[in-house]
Amino acid sequence: MKEIKIIKKEDKIYPQKLLEINNPPKQLYVLGDETLLNKTSLAIIGSRDCTLYGYQQAKRFSKEIAQNNICIVSGMAIGIDAAAHIGAKAEIGKTIAVLGGGFNNIFPKENEDLFFEILECGGCIITEYEPNVEANGKFFPKRNRIISGLSEGVLVVEARYRSGTSITAKYAKEQKKSIYCIPSNVDSTTGYGTGILVQEGAKLVLSPNDILQDFNINSKEKLEIPKEKEYVNVDKEYKPIYDVLTKIPISINEICKRSKKNIGEVNVALTMLELQGVIKQIGINEFVKI
Q1: Of 29-38, 208-217, 222-231, which gets the smallest average pLDDT?
Q2: Would you say 71 and 97 are in contact if contact means Cβ atoms under 8 Å apart?
Q3: What percentage of the chain reaches a pLDDT higher than 90?
Q4: pLDDT of residue 161
Q5: CATH 1.10.10.10 boundaries in the chain
Q6: pLDDT single digits (tens) 220-229
Q7: Torsion angle defined by CA atoms of residues 197, 40, 174 and 99, in that order, rounded to the nearest 10 degrees
Q8: Which of 33, 53, 99, 229 lies in disulfide reach of 127, CB 3.0 to 4.6 Å?
């Protein structure tokens, strides 16, 4: 592991944006490139148990925004946080991970490889806790004030109602930061929180360029409007099942409910549709269109 640097609130390199928030950390433990702490940044946050759609969007948005020299900040949790770091870590903007524990107790263990990849790619990892402090659920809400505090704005990809993501968005409001949301499925528990944020004034964004414009940057990437896909020829008896599927994973129980078919009919249809290569299974008993 690289040398741990300690940056105190009195030091010149201490992030100036954190001096403007309530209860700024007295000191930060830092691994990696500390100069990123004073760089123009965007936080990307969201649900740990995100959908495949949410994961892909977080990765896409973070990559393009980081390509435009904006640092991506997140909390290195599984799900949306991990996707944000993965999308940005090798780009010019790099990424900052803010931990809810010490460096000697990497949490979650599933992201231990990501921890070292962020450092290898020139990113930065910080915490306000001493190296041997274990991650604790009580620390995460407190950590979230740093995630939003380091950033000019916060992009929420997916969020449950009254979740940790919502706490970060609350901090962002108090800090008068811009809040952005990607459209989500209102039938999904991970999409409901973003809908509430939009109702409360968050900006709905359809592409990374919607955010980059607020940073006075014209994206190098050409905005592509999604095109209607070519007609997929599906057997008539399986079409009612195919029609209820989307790019967002749906459980078998939900498919039964929407199609008004019994579990046996649904299982047969899903098997045949998979064999035709027009759908695929994601996780345990969840399916999406290809």
Answers
A1: 222-231
A2: no
A3: 62
A4: 73
A5: 239-289
A6: 554 455 555 5
A7: 90
A8: 99
Q: Which amino acid, residue 199?
A: Q
Residue 223 burial class via C-beta count within 10 angstroms: exposed 0-12, middle 13-18, buried 19 and up: exposed
pLDDT of residue 233: 80
pLDDT tens for 17-28 read 999 999 999 999
pTM of the model: 0.76
What is the strand order of the sheet 178-181 is part of? 5-8, 27-32, 124-127, 95-98, 71-74, 41-45, 153-156, 178-181, 203-204
Task: Give the model's pLDDT for residue 112.
Answer: 94
Instruction: In whole angstroms, give the CA distance from residue 120 to residue 27.
Output: 24
Task: Give the Cα separation of 116 and 216 in Å (integer).
Answer: 32
For residues 81 and 45, the answer to whether their CB atoms sit within 8 Å is yes
DSSP 116: H
CATH of domain 239-289: 1.10.10.10
From-to residues of CATH 3.40.50.450 in the chain:
5-215
11, 17, 21, 25: CA torsion to nearest 10? -40
Instruction: List phi, psi (to 5°) of 38.
Output: -110, 20
Residue 222 confidence (pLDDT): 46
pLDDT at 227: 54
CA dist., res. 283 & res. 287, Å (int): 8
Amino acid at 242: Y
Q: CATH topology for 5-215?
A: Rossmann fold (3.40.50)
Residue found by looking up tokens 């039964």 in the block = 256
**Euclidean distance between CA atoms 205 and 201, whole angstroms:** 12
State both tokens at 247: 């790019």
Structure tokens, 187: 């039938």
pLDDT at residue 228 in the model:
52
